[in-house]
């Protein structure tokens, strides 16, 4: 046990990999924000809609009108500071807060990779990523070190390993492995992909992609850890992610993952990358090679820091399994689905027609969802119970403000999952305004008619 | 090291270029367990056998309508009024076969919004007839022209044909002919633009855009098709007048309100058009080509799921049967409180919406918009 701690946690390692990671991570984030802005998505997702879906407990996080652009600017500037390693601690804290705020504004746009970036930037708050090859280290030689404790780099490897391995575990279910769903739906529609498009309609390809995908996710952390298989594993990472990028609208995530996987390599590769930067930018790399070792005296404050990181990882290991606390099929109820690395796992869509009833007179009418929701919001709302409930409460409030009395809200909702014919999703006799959001099971979800076996 | 850097540059470039490119790709060979379907064949069938012929037929019917108006203008008697009205009904029925194609040229000119906004604004029309000053190209005047305005001009200017004729023949109302003519010419100019744009260029653009993205022809057409079914056919023709979105019936919102007798027939024309389009049935023919139905069947060869195309066809048939048993919508709504039979028919029309919007869209993996997603 002691030797493990000495090897993986305390032992000093070169700081170059963490510095490279900081720079590339910051650049990717900057690129990602610019891309988001350039597509007009800030306006489309955070300014145009009249209503935003909140995470439970974070109802106070909302877009702030035109100032929303300011949040993105703050986020972009902090990403630049992270790249430069200038006032790193403050920069990464601001980045974490602004990025996470953006993600919390509307859960319609929830993506696992945004969650991953929030987690990673949170972890990076505690890492000495600025002690090497940074403006901080350049300006203040006292803060410059060439070696850092092993845990700093290993914690990033651990987080990446969790993401891949849990994504692999989530694929071990009968729909994915035995029916090749949802790839059987998605791949044939990608017939226009260059080179491979003509094969994507064939059934064996759907199974091959499903099984390889699951195997890849489960094995890749270990193949990256092992020195002998590392290069092969990295090539696999590149192929896998480029393929997902070509086939699916998955944004910058594949590139974030490819760049992150570099952290598994030995320090000499990172030194070469930094030398490359240095030659181009005329920076004296050797001035950072101080041979000093970064050590932290275990003061109370430092001990708290270790405690936070330990709790953070325990949560990461446990959270994806919280679904076992809920009855019913996870893919159907989605109770415990988010924040669990369930990526590209299901083709689910729904249709929800809300009925506003006057509780006194019984008079009723239907809601035109497009009066209140953007097409994306309507699509996401129609098959996720927490969205449906929140929207029902919003409708009650809206129509009561309009002068309607004693408003009851019912929904007729049909959902299709992984190619199954759509069936009733929500008990249409339940007045949703009487139901409250909570972490407990929503017993007004109509039970799933089929069975999906597996984890 | 240089190799790694070079590799990254290639990678980034690849990413930069890959995003929205629509490249040609074909699915050939046909062993068992393979989705073999050519979207381009479906697009060609849509364009050449359905959309353009439907527009041509509509254009012809509109010309006939203008002819009968000219005859009526020349000689405003009851016989010519009845003929004018019956040409209006044929053209209105013909319109129901093109209303769903709100894509390309039709989308550019706002065809739907310029041709068939109802209830029509009678106050405006009355004023325009009196003053003789109006600009039909203004978007604020969209509810004062098109078929609904003709409905008012043909059926709403008096209690009966004698009164209507009297209105036209009253010397002070000379402008009513001019106004009716301008409404007709406006419609003619719109269909002229749409049809010639389809024939001269857009047809090829439409067929060539055979990829799979939110901007490809199939994805856009499917979205437009469902939008038409949900908003115009289901809600516009039945739901809104029934009051399902307002809580109380709105008979004046029935299509062809002043005529009062043809609303259910117009709906049924629209439903047939939607149904035929689903099955790829050539315009005015029993021949069927590649269609949404055959696409669903092709996808089902590997999915082995429910026979969705049969379910959707069945639902369209049920809805038609129910509506066929109704009187005109205006009568149903005005004579029954509540109009139960029409509500029940509406429910059957409604039931096709989730089938199209959820099951079909999901099976075809149609994207509703361009956005990052990691699989819901």
Automatic annotation (TrEMBL), chain A:
Q: Which residues cross the membrane?
A: 20-42, 67-84, 91-108, 114-135, 147-167, 204-225, 232-265
Membrane topology summary:
Multi-pass membrane protein
Any one of the GO CC terms: endomembrane system
Keywords associated with the record: Disulfide bond, Lyase, Membrane, Transmembrane, Transmembrane helix
Q: What is this protein identified as?
A: Vitamin K-dependent gamma-carboxylase
UniProt-listed Pfam families: HTTM, VKGC_lumenal_dom
Q: Lineage of this protein's species?
A: Bacteria, Pseudomonadati, Bacteroidota, Flavobacteriia, Flavobacteriales
Q: Which GO terms describe its molecular function?
A: gamma-glutamyl carboxylase activity; vitamin binding
Tell me the ranges covered by the HTTM-like domain, including all copies.
10-269
UniProtKB/TrEMBL annotation, chain B:
Keywords, sorted A to Z:
Signal
Q: Does the keyword Signal apply?
A: yes
Q: State the Gene3D superfamilies in the record.
A: M75 peptidase, HXXE motif
Question: What does the UniProt entry say about where the protein is found?
Answer: Cell envelope
Which InterPro entries does this one have? Answer: Imelysin-like, Imelysin-like_IPPA, Imelysin_sf
**One GO term of the cellular component aspect?**
cell envelope
Q: Where's the Imelysin-like domain?
A: 51-337
Major location, coarse class? other
Q: What is this protein called?
A: Imelysin
The source organism is Maribacter orientalis
């Amino acid at each position: 046990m002691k030797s493990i701690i000495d090897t993986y946690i305390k032992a000093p390692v070169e700081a170059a990999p963490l510095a490279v990671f900081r720079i590339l991570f910051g650049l990717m984030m900057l690129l990602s924000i610019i891309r988001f802005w350039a597509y007009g998505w800030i306006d489309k997702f955070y300014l145009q809609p009249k209503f935003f879906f909140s995470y439970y407990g974070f109802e106070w996080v909302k877009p702030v009108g035109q100032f929303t652009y300011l949040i993105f600017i703050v986020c972009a500037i902090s990403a630049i500071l992270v790249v430069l390693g200038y006032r790193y601690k403050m920069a990464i804290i601001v980045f974490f807060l602004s990025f996470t705020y953006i993600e919390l504004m509307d859960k319609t746009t929830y993506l696992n990779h945004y969650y991953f970036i929030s987690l990673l930037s949170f972890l990076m708050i505690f890492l000495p990523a600025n002690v090497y090859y940074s403006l901080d280290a350049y300006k203040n030689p006292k803060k410059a070190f060439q070696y850092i404790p092993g845990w700093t780099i290993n914690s990033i490897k651990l987080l990446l390993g969790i993401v891949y391995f849990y994504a692999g575990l989530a694929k071990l279910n009968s729909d994915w492995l035995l029916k090749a769903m949802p790839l059987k739906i998605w791949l044939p529609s990608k017939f226009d992909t260059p080179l491979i498009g003509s094969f994507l309609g064939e059934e064996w390809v759907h199974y091959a992609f499903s099984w390889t995908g699951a195997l890849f996710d489960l094995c890749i952390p270990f193949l990256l850890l092992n020195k002998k298989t590392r290069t092969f594993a990295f090539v696999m990472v590149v192929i896998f992610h480029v393929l997902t990028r070509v086939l699916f609208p998955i944004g910058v995530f594949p590139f974030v993952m490819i760049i992150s996987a570099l952290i598994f390599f030995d320090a000499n590769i990172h030194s070469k990358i930094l030398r490359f930067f240095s030659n181009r930018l005329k920076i004296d790399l050797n001035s950072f090679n101080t041979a000093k070792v970064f050590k932290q005296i275990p003061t109370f404050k430092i001990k708290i820091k270790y405690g936070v990181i330990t709790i953070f990882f325990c949560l990461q290991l446990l959270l994806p399994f919280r679904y076992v606390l809920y009855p019913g099929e996870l893919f159907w109820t989605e109770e415990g689905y988010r924040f669990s690395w369930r990526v590209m796992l299901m083709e689910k869509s729904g249709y929800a027609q809300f009925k506003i009833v006057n509780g006194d007179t019984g008079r009723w009418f239907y809601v035109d969802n497009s009066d209140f929701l953007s097409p994306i919001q309507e699509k996401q709302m129609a098959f996720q119970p927490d969205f449906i409930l929140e929207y029902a409460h919003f409708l009650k409030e809206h129509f009561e403000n309009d002068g309607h009395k004693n408003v009851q809200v019912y929904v007729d909702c049909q959902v299709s999952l992984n190619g199954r014919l759509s069936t009733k999703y929500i008990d249409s006799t339940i007045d949703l305004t009487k139901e409250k959001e909570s972490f407990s099971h929503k017993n007004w979800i109509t039970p799933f008619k089929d069975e999906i076996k597996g984890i | 090291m240089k190799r790694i850097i070079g590799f990254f540059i290639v990678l980034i470039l690849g990413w930069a270029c890959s995003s929205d490119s629509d490249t040609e790709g074909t699915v050939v060979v046909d062993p068992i367990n393979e989705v073999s379907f050519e979207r381009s064949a479906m697009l060609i069938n849509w364009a050449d056998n359905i959309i353009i012929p439907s527009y041509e037929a509509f254009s012809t019917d509109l010309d006939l309508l203008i002819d009968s108006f000219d005859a009526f203008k020349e000689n405003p008697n009851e016989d010519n009024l009845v003929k004018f009205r019956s040409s209006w009904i044929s053209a209105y029925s013909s319109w129901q076969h093109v209303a769903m194609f709100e894509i390309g040229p039709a989308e550019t000119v706002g065809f739907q919004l310029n041709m068939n906004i109802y209830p029509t604004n009678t106050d405006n029309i009355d004023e325009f007839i009196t003053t003789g000053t109006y600009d039909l190209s203004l978007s604020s005047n969209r509810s004062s022209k098109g078929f609904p305005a003709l409905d008012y001009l043909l059926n709403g200017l008096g209690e009966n044909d004698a009164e209507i004729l009297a209105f036209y023949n009253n010397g002070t109302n000379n402008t009513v002919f001019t106004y009716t003519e301008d409404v007709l010419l406006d419609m003619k100019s719109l269909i002229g633009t749409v049809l010639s744009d389809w024939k001269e260029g857009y047809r090829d653009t439409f067929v060539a855009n055979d990829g799979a993205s939110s901007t490809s022809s199939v994805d856009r057409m499917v979205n437009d098709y469902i939008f038409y079914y949900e908003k115009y056919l289901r809600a516009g023709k039945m739901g809104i007048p029934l009051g399902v979105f307002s809580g109380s019936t709105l008979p004046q919102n029935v299509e062809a309100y002043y005529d009062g007798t043809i609303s259910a027939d117009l709906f049924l024309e629209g439903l047939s058009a939607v149904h035929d389009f689903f099955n790829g049935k050539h315009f005015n023919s029993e021949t069927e080509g590649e269609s949404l139905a055959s696409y669903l069947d092709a996808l089902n060869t590997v999915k082995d799921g429910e026979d969705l195309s049969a379910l959707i066809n069945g639902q369209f048939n049920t809805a038609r049967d129910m509506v066929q048993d109704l009187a005109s919508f205006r009568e149903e709504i005005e004579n029954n409180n509540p109009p139960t039979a029409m509500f029940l028919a509406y429910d059957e029309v409604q039931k096709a919406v989730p089938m199209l919007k959820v099951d079909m869209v999901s099976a075809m993996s149609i994207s509703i918009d361009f956005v990052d997603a990691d699989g819901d």
